[in-house]
Amino acid sequence: xxxxxxxxxxxxxxxxxxxxxxxxxxxxxxxxxxxxxxxxxxxxxxxxxxxxxxxxxxxxxxxxxxxxxxxxxxxxxxxxxxxxxxxxxxxxxxxxxxxxxxxxxxxxxxxxxxxxxxxxxxxxxxxxxxxxxxxxxxxxxxxxxxxxxxxxxxxxxxxxxxxxxxxxxxxxxxxxxxxxxxxxxxxxxxxxxxxxxxxxxxxxxxxxxxxxxxxxxxxxxxxxxxxxxxxxxxxxxxxxxxxxxxxxxxxxxxxxxxxxxxxxxxxxxxxxxxxxxxxxxxxxxxxxxxxxx
Length: 293
Prior knowledge:
The protein has 293 residues and is α/β, with parallel strands linked by helices. Helix content is 35%, strand content 22%. It has helices at 39-47, 114-131, 142-146, 154-177, 194-198, 202-215, 244-249, 268-276, 281-292, and strands spanning 8-9, 18-19, 21-22, 52-61, 64-72, 81-90, 96-100, 103-109, 180-186, 219-223, 255-256, 265-266. A five-stranded mixed sheet has the order 8-7-6-9-10, sandwiched between helices. A three-stranded mixed sheet has the order 3-5-4. Strands 1-2 form a two-stranded antiparallel sheet. Strand 1 and strand 2 (18-19) form a beta hairpin. Helix 2 (114-131) packs antiparallel against helix 4 and helix 4 crosses helix 6. The longest helix has 24 residues, at 154-177. The chain is globular.
């Protein structure tokens, strides 16, 4: 018995009915209904009313017919532990690094940054279009005519949107699975510039992640990212030499603690994520700034 045989589509130009093959978006191994997973189990839930069909689309590709279903269902919120604290560092090498306080073994790092690669390709195309534009040297209405090359194509927008959604879902599932009760995010604001608009939507990623986490019942708090890269997350020693210019010059090395008794070594973005999820880190920042005065 195949559940998709219940769905029959009749084309006017045909005398015989056409049997449609259904499939789920996130296909798992077809283990059957016994394990309550796989394509057949998803279709069974549609038939018995567990899932509500919101949209239905029937398409023909070559000589095959396909039915696309969008389903809606209620999920039970997973219990969270308020004592478990997590942190998220947003960067370019790794878009998101998720850690849990006092837990060095349970981490999530998204790598490589496919969103940045896609954006760089788009920027290169914009530069090429501008270079070949006859209005680039000047003339009346130059800014308006060159602005056309700055627009993002619908195809690029959709690809970027899907990549961002993948990043957010991975981070959300990580914290939900580990029953994290509070997550600290960086408080970042993009400047209103061409670079911020097209280069990398970091604020968009963090704001959407915040909404997803709050929907799961997780408390989200913001922390300013100042000094999170320069402070040792193990002993609190400050390394003022570990600036962005230094990291860029040395091809973004790992963080090395200056305290010889500590000797902590960790990738810089991991170290930053652990500092972000430290509740009293703002007190550490105040102490550093007071010493500079």
